[in-house]
Amino acid sequence: MIPAAFEYVRAESAEEAVALLVEHGDDAKLIAGGHSLLPLMKLRLATPTVLVDIGRVPGLSYIEERGDEIAIGALARHHDLETSAVLKEQVPLLAATAHQVGDPQVRHRGTLGGTLAHGDPASDLPAAVLALGGTLVAQGPNGRREISALEFFRGFLETALGADEVLVEIRVPKAAGAGWSFQKFNRRAQDWAIVGVAAVVNGTTGIALVNMGSTPLRATAVEEAVRSGASVTDAAAAASQGTDPPSDVNASSEYRRHLATVLVRRALEEASS
Amino acid sequence: MTVGAGTFSGTPVRRVEDPDLLRGAGTFVDNLKIDGMLSLSFVRSPIAHATIRSVDVTAAREMPGVVGVYSAADLELPDAPALMALHPAAIRPSLAKGTVNFVGDPVVAVVAETRAAAMDAAELVEIDYEPLGVVVDMEEALDRGSPAQFESLGGNVVIGLRTGSEDPLAGADVVVRGRFENQRVAVVPMEGSAIVVDPTGTDFDLTVHLSCQMPHVARAGLAKLLGMDQERVRVIAPHVGGAFGAKHLSAEGVVASKLALELGRPVKWVETRSENLVAMAHGRGQVQYVELGLRRDGTFVGMRCRMVGDAGGYGGFGGILVLGQTKLMAQGVYHIPAIAFDVAIVTTNTTPMGAYRGAGRPEAAAFVERIVDMAADELGIDPVELRRKNFIRPDEFPLTTVMGADYDSGDYGAALDEVLRLADYDALRREQDERRRRGDRMQLGIGVSTYVEVTGGGAEFSEVEVHDDGTITVKAGTSAHGQGHATAFSQIAADQFGVPIEQIRYVQSDTALVARGRGTGGSRSVQLGGTAVLQTSKLVVERAKELVAELLETAPEDVVVTGDGRLGVAGVPSKALSWGEVARVAAERGAPLLVQHDTERAGSTYPFGAHVAVVEVDMETGRVVPLRHVAVDDCGVIVNPMLVDGQVHGGLASGISQALWEQFLYDDDGNPITSTLAEYAMPSAAELPSFVTAHTETPSPLNDLGAKGIGESATVGSTPAVQNAVVDALSHLGVRHIDMPCTPERVWRAITAAQAGTLPDPWREPRPEMAGFPREGAAGEELERGAESVNL
Ligand SMILES: Cc1cc2nc3c(=O)[nH]c(=O)nc-3n(C[C@H](O)[C@H](O)[C@H](O)COP(=O)(O)OP(=O)(O)OC[C@H]3O[C@@H](n4cnc5c(N)ncnc54)[C@H](O)[C@@H]3O)c2cc1C
By alpha-carbon position, which residue is closest to atom 47 of ligand 1? Predict the structure, then answer.
């Protein structure tokens, strides 16, 4: 429960963070809220030798309207999202999802950038960003680039971010008045989802699944079924198509498949009501 | 404030303990800082069963700040302490010797100047293991060919015994059968194990600050293991962050003590959260094969129980509980004329078993209340009526049960009536019917349990002294670790002396300050320690009255405690002396107002009660949400209702949690898979319903207070009520049993199987080995007596 020894450097800007990553190479890790990284370090499952703290980089915690989109700084905490008036009005799915993450302590430390960069399929917010079809902005030694959420998650705890890149911004389309739902199934209030579903119905329907494979997943079979006019129940029946849910102490993969069907149906019902 | 004698007992006096705790002035072991103190850390086995081929500590020894790195071969260590040895062959060394028997088995001890240095060095210890066969499942451990931990046992069965009636089901019209798993759970106190051992003091050879329940017992055990005179050892239990039966001198504590003596410096060991889940003894862990015979009208004829108890690695003493309290309480609150009770206790490659809140009694209530519900379902009788029909009646107490328990007093029907009234049972059943008729997604389950358990028994010590400033020091040999003894015992004493609570100074949990004691466990404290305080206070008051009679020239019978802090003459308000004045004169005469007193041995008391649990089951997902829990617990005469409710609330949380959430699990190789609190489902307040608590008060005739234990009762009563409620919610589908914890997946599987007509039979025959054990003989009886004395 005590991490291995490491050096600690605090970056004052995204540029400086990138420079530090370049300088220290593979030994370095960014730390934002620390609520995914520190548990791994305490169990000594992660042993970075240099921690680059971006947690206090100024000007990266904004949540603001920008044209048709809402732009969110990577350091916005889950608590900022759940309490943001702009989000509640323009992208209520994101605010409601943030509200379901962990407990108040976790929500006051964890960042949107951190949870996306960590790429844990069991995390809630990545599914919401995926369902919304968001855009992620990464800053590296050669400047900024944009990555579609659909392309961002590559494998278990693996993303499209380069080792010398910092995720600086997340943008999601405004969806005021759209139907939405976030269904989280867990055993205890502060638990991770056994299965979760994020849905947004805004002309088109976007549905993403939590903990149904090695990455957050779009439920494309369901989306297609909805597009071709299937009933909610029939569409939901396709929920586990193309997924590869794990079996673990909380649930077998068979049960997860069943839950996905139930939760997608409930999400569609709620989002279209 | 004017106080009259006898005004505190029975009232919700606020806890005198809380100001310190709320202000952060707690004295928890880890808060302790002593100059020159070293930190101890352990390298634990990552493998469930293996031969230790070699241990290489060179790299660890060279780390900065490291003082020493030791394996069993480097230290002359005594064996690990056990509250009771299951078998002479089942011995646990304090550090693993030759083999490791469970994941978490400590193999190497690292001592360093700081905790971080000790942990870093521990990472560098290299141990070469040769894996051995592993047995995790307690029924597989019955197989003589299963990989054994102790060669001389020739397998994993430590005790195999058949007891009781030879043919208990004879004459039954109907026999109801069930196989029930009472799952292994972890204790998870907020504070893990912790010890500081200081060999540098002048007054004692060893001063031990130990987070524990029984400092005097720990002192005796430690002194014996180390070959020291116990008068030279001081054990202090400071603030303890929860214990629940599991906090005693541990193997690690012995290592810490040995190293402190060896190095001549204070040594601290504080368990980490991760260590706690594998190193602290686990609880429960039984597989129960139960058959209840009834007549058509519902009268119980007899019961046959065949039980397997998991003792875990090395044969942890908790394995004995199946033969102790579980067997003793197998009859529950009912007349069951004949009972057979066969037991197998086995070792497995898992964390050793110990005692956990209820220690054997929840396991008994769970199977009795489950089989009674199954019988009600089978016969189509309301579970409440079936219970009532078979209750032991109030006019039958005291009585000795078929299992040999001496039930002191009880009124089971009164508790049941009260809980049904509070829960509005009939209205609940009506709502259940409506939901069923409508085919609601959320179905209602109503679970009833009526239980009796066993607490206390034995003697306890107290000392009371009045000082010349009028303050009174009260000591008892019990040792609170959160319960509020300082408050309750001060109430008892304050009533006798007619003084405000603030005038009492309560002292406990330090062997240098309290002459002797048995500590706290088995819900014994108020009934034994409280009674000791009461009796001792009375002896002091008596002595004071004699002195006052002499001073005021009257007869001792005419001296009264005035209730305003004085002793006076009845009917003559002007003639009175304060407690301080009396104490001063007594001291001057060489006979200070100080009495040390031991109570006579008292028999165990039998608290009881009735619970109603209401749950909602989501028929699509199997998720169970506890909606209400109504508990009527009878702990005899209540000293402080607020403290009692605190015990009940905590007990309900533990009990409900066993029914719905907690289970400690291993994979087939013996790797724990619930080894962090992310996987091990400890509930929080968010998961629990709000509790309705109430009490009937049936005095125990066995102590002056009329009190029975309450620390564990709600745990005993709540688990079966909740499990019964879950099954009840699905009974219309034909579901008859779901094992604990009733996880969403298990419940969903039951629903799915019911809909498909493929529900599994809740019964199967136990393994054939169970039939081969010897019938109870002298050795068995001796073991049972030993087992009964393990009351935590
Ligand atoms: C008790 C507990 C319960 C939790 N429950 C939930 C839950 O129910 N649902 C849920 O979704 N999550 C849960 N979490 C996780 C929580 O949401 C984390 O905060 C989040 O996953 C990670 O965000 P962070 O800022 O803490 O990231 P950190 O831990 O600081 O970093 C995580 C990873 O991302 C990298 N990283 C961080 N920021 C950036 C960046 N800007 N650019 C590039 N890389 C970056 C780090 O290098 C690291 O590899 C829980 C955590 C805890 C401790």
Answer: A30
> Are B686 and A189 inside 8 Å of each other by CB?
yes
CB atoms within 10 A of CB B589: 10
Q: What is the CATH number of the domain that holds A245?
A: 3.30.390.50
What strands, in cross-sheet order, belong to the sheet with A69-73? A63-66, A69-73, A166-173, A135-140, A143-148
Q: Which CATH number fits domain B35-132+193-240+247-279: 3.40.50.720, 3.40.50.300, 3.30.40.10, 3.90.1170.50?
A: 3.90.1170.50
Instruction: For residue range B350-376, list pLDDT tens digits in order.
Output: 999 999 999 999 999 999 999 999 999
For a ligand 1 pocket test, name from A1, A9, A35, A158 the mutation site with the most ligand atoms within 8 angstroms of its C-beta. A35
Residues B538-555 have a mean pLDDT of 96
Q: Kindly determine whether residue B745 and residue A252, on different chains, have CB atoms separated by under 8 Å.
A: yes
DSSP string, A46-72: ---SEEEE-TT-TT---EEEETTEEEE
SS3 B655: helix
Rounded average pLDDT over B326-346: 98
- Domain B18-25+458-598: state its class: alpha beta
pLDDT tens for residues A131-149?
Answer: 999 999 999 999 999 999 9
Q: How far is residue B689's CA from residue B743's CA, in Å, rounded to a whole number?
A: 17
Residues within a 6 A CB radius of ligand 1: A 29-37, 39, 54, 74, 101-102, 106, 109-111, 113-115, 117-118, 123-125, 161, 166-167, 192
Pairwise CA distance, residues B528 & B488, whole Å = 13
β partners of residue B566: B578
CA B84 to CA B100: how far, in whole Å?
21
Question: Token match 């005291």: residue?
Answer: B398
| In a shared domain, residues A104 and A192 | no
CA dihedral in degrees (B3, B9, B12, B18; nearest 10)? 80
Residue B1 — pLDDT band, cuts 50, 70, 90? very low
Checking if the pLDDT of B632 tops 90, the result is yes
| Averaged pLDDT score across all residues of chain B | 95
Residues A57-78 pLDDT 10s: 999 999 999 999 999 999 999 9
CA–CA distance, A180 with A183 (Å, rounded to integer): 10
The one-letter code for the residue type at B376 is A
Place of tokens 């009124």: B411
B 99-118 residues with CB < 8 A to A: 115-116
* Residue ranges making up the domain that contains A30: 7-53
